[in-house]
Amino acid sequence: MKITILTGIVAGPLVVFAQLNALAKDAGLLYFGTAVSPSDSSDSAYYKLENDIKNFGQYTPDNAQKWDATEPSRGRFSYGQADSIVNRALSNKMLMRCHTLVWYSQLPGWVSSGSWTKDTMTAVMQTHISNVMGHFKGKCYAWDVVNEALEDDGSYRNNPFLKALGDSYFALSFQFAAAADPSTKLYYNDYNLEYFPVKADGAVRIVKLVQAAGVPIHGVGLQAHMTVGRTPSRENLTWTLNKYVALGLDVAYTELDIRIKPLPSNSSSLQAQAKEYEAMVGSCLDVPRCVGITVWGFGDSHSWIPQTFSNAGDSCLFDKNSKPKPAFSSVSALLASASGKRAPWNTAASTMMATITKPAAATPTA
């Protein structure tokens, strides 16, 4: 694919105006994507950017496919908001990363407060997964099957599934998912795998449990919710990704943002953010089985960060007016410079197994 890059100088650094998904595909990734919400349509400038496949080639619903949205009461399923997102993606010829099936959070009260035995929880999980995945069968490139099952120390997070089933719920979740839609890629997805090696190893343990049960698992999603000044180096990020590639899996950054704290942001913090976005994207380019990158909203006006973290924000590639920030320019320039250097996705090169060599630099800590 031939990409035209328009460059200009704006008070210093080189600014590259380009379209992220087109550049990412030209650099050998499958997509550059974004999380989306039905409410995005209320912001016309943002919505226009979001609907252009040259900008974003993949959607992830931010909340519309979570358990409280899809099965708010037992056996009653609701898909209206999720359908609107999926249908828009398909109309735009975009991929869908569907999210998420088994998660400790955003559970309806009938699940989180229920009194479950092994048999009843197994039945509830199977019913939920088979119905939700069955409704979207053939429409999702990938599903986050199990989400955030680990504490930062690598131990299992306490949740209704673990209480009723122990660690067998991992393999059961993937077993039910594989039966519901054999054509989709099945992922384990979690945050802080980039920061805590012990947590990253916990995800390895989950993958091996599923594989030992003879159940398909195709990838690990690293959420990549980062903080400026704490993002690991490109080398260390690559090392973490390769932990999962060595198990025969694909990897992806699934919810990328890099928040600035404290606010307000300034030219220095925005330039630091740009360099850290470059390290994140660069590490994916360095790993042949890194499928692609999804940002958790691309504009600061649509970010979840200010409502969740005190005195933090400005985490996205675009500002509150949907104008590109230095981070957008650094990511665009990096992708443009990588054009043609990596084999296109799904070729023999992208199925190579990784050899893990721990980087010379110290392993990053919190």
UniProtKB/TrEMBL annotation:
It catalyses: Endohydrolysis of (1->4)-beta-D-xylosidic linkages in xylans. InterPro entries: GH, GH10, GH10_dom. GO terms for molecular function: endo-1,4-beta-xylanase activity. One of its GO terms (cellular component) is extracellular region. Residues 1-18 form the signal peptide. Residues 24-334 form the GH10 domain. SUPFAM superfamilies: (Trans)glycosidases. Belongs to the glycosyl hydrolase 10 (cellulase F) family. It is found in: Secreted. GO terms for biological process: xylan catabolic process. This is Beta-xylanase. The lineage of its organism: Eukaryota, Fungi, Dikarya, Ascomycota, Pezizomycotina. It is an enzyme of class 3 (hydrolase). It comes from the Eukaryota. Keywords: Carbohydrate metabolism, Glycosidase, Hydrolase, Polysaccharide degradation, Secreted, Signal, Xylan degradation. Pathway: Glycan degradation; xylan degradation. Its EC number is 3.2.1.8.
